[in-house]
Amino acid sequence: MIKHIVLFKLKNPTTEVVNETVAKLRSLEGKVESLIALEIGADILRTERSYDVALTATFETLEGLQAYQVHPEHVKIIEYMNIVRESSIAADYEY
After folding, report:
1. Largest interatomic CA distance in the chain
2. 72-84 and 15-26 helices cross at what angle (nearest 10)?
3. Which residues pair with 5 in a beta bridge?
4. Residue 94 CB contacts under 8 Å (≥ 6 apart), including other chains
5. Average pLDDT in the 80-87 region?
6. Given the DSSP bridges, would you call strands 35-42 and 85-94 parallel, antiparallel or unpaired?
7. Which long-range contacts (CB under 8 A, 24 or more apart) does 42-47 make?
8. Which of 56, 55, 59 is nearest to 34 (CA)?
9. Rounded distance, CA 95 to CA 2, Å?
10. Which residues of 23-54 are buried (b: 16+ CB within 10 A; e: fewer)?
């Protein structure tokens, strides 16, 4: 199994933008065949070191993660995130 974790820091982390971002990320559910599980959450502490939104996705195989990366629905989300995000960090691991 593969975990894909991404944290997003938004340019303008207002409640409206955070909620819209969470909704867009959640819209991936059921649209990408290789995506087994998806968790999306907005940061609740809002400290200086916090990122605003977290995504955790689960895939059966590395090939499933790679298919997700180029899936048209994921590409649409990347285009949106390129507009609203200030930065992001990611980690992918096998477990």
Report:
1. 36
2. 170
3. 56, 91
4. 1, 2, 3, 62
5. 98
6. unpaired
7. 42/18, 46/13
8. 59
9. 6
10. ebbeebeeebebbeebebebbeeeeeeebbbb
- pLDDT per residue over 27-81, tens digit each? 999 999 999 999 999 999 999 999 999 999 999 999 999 999 999 999 999 999 9
pLDDT tens column, 3-25: 999 999 999 999 999 999 999 99
**24: which 2 tokens?**
């867009």
3-state secondary structure of 78: helix
CB count, 10 Å around CB of 18?
A: 19
Q: 35 pairs with which residues across the strands?
A: 59
**How far apart, in whole angstroms, are the C-alpha atoms of residue 52 and residue 43?**
5
> Cα(47)–Cα(53) distance, rounded to whole angstroms?
13
- Give the tokens for residue 14: 């207002």
